[in-house]
Amino acid sequence: MRQSLATATYLASLVLAVLPTAAESLQTRGSEFDSACNEISKAISSASALHWPGLDLLYSKDIGHWATSSSQDAACSVEPGTAEDVGTILQILAKNQTPFAVKGAGHASNPGFSSTNGVQIAMYRFSEVKYDSDANVAEVGAGLIWDEVYEALEPYAVNVVGGRVTGVGVAGFTLGGGYSWKTNRLGLTVDNLTGFELVLPNGTIAAVNQDSHPDLFWGLKGGFNNFGIVTKFNLTTHAQTEVWGGLITFTEDQLEKVNAATVKFSQQTTDPRAAVLPTYNFVLGGPGVSLLLFYDYPTAPEGLFDDYLAIPHFTKDVKTRSFLDLVKVAPANATGGQRGIFHTVSLLQYTDKIMDAVLNETKFWGERLSWKTGNFISYDVEPFLPSIFSHAAEGSSAFPPSRAQGLLPLNIYYAWGASFEDETFQDAARQSAAQLLQIVQAEGQDVADAALYGNYAIFDTPLERIYGANLPRLKELKAQYDPEGVMDLAGGWRF
User: Fold this and answer.
1) Distance between CA 65 and CA 426 in Å, rounded?
2) Do 153 and 236 contact (CB within 8 A), yes or no?
3) CB-count burial class (<10 Å; 0-12, 13-18, 19+) for 126
4) What digits encode the pLDDT tens for the residues 450-483?
5) Which residues does 356 contact at the CB level (< 8 Å), separation at least 6?
6) Which of 119, 180, 372, 423 is least enclosed, having the fewest CB within 10 Å?
């Protein structure tokens, strides 16, 4: 009965949440930003296109996000097809002081970070992957998702350091740092970048690398969209075989065993080809775990994952497969189309008490938020090796601000139905992060001021908590390359 009532409440809230959205969409035309839209429409080349609200499905695609709470009704959307057109668009927006947003794939959970009621720029047309086998570099368009990148590189038996689950965009993931299945062995995505094509706030195009613009090259590695709009990324490629791994799900009665296996894996595994991602979910009235196993070779060493494999499972899909197939096996899109928020805690290692706390938080907030149209309460446990930041030199990127010790980002993710409950879920995520941080500190981990991962941190996180001592330099860099504050017209982490 309890679950039925919660479900009925959730469905009713969905109807209420959707009705005003449709009305607002029809009212958007005639907004104060239409003149800028018309000017852009006349100025861009045939390689680009502008869309208006109403019956244009491409407009809906352009403003849409994985989390509906991250979408806004824009005055218009524009899909630039060339870097030159991106420059033209930025110049018009700057002249008119029109708010805008830049969207890669739309996986940002923070509201307003890649959406606007002004001009929505959707990067979908930057969709090419070019592989240079001599240089071991892949040029990747900013409008792609990682699935598409992996598919394009698969025939060459090479890969890049990118996203772990299906549907995640290249742009925001890379500009924020990028934790990958390959991070234990090769570092963050920003540690595997060789260059960018960047449209500066004044509309000019720059090829940014360590030689041409070492300051911008540093700032873009973790500094998001503060310095202009990136249209292409140059990523180092690495040889790729088939991999071993997949998805196992466990029911509530087995979770103490999952906890124990995770602590042992975190504390004892040193093989950089191995990784796990246990996700603690409260769904359909109770907690469970979706566990992703990964080994970067067709077969895993004997005994490496035995503690997990010995636990009685609910479902199991683990085998030798392509890297792309492993990425697609994770049900990351299952909660798409709901409202959502992320938050995070950084820690150094998982212990029994920390894992107990993760499970307790899953139950505590799952039971309470289910009555608030919450349908997915989730905690991603990411036990990387402590050496993950050692794959690049200290001071080589804006994030992380220090590479003295590796930081493991625990991701809190809540999904719900009703817009009037937004603050409830956002506050709950903050409270849960604070509780987990207290437990981590009680375990002797000095992480009170540890850098938080910008792709997971909730929108009101102080910039100092993400960039630490790098923040003054980033602000100076922003002032140098964007003296008119053009990028301040867009959302996101603003310097």
Assistant:
1) 18
2) no
3) buried
4) 999 999 999 999 999 999 999 999 999 999 999 9
5) 259
6) 423
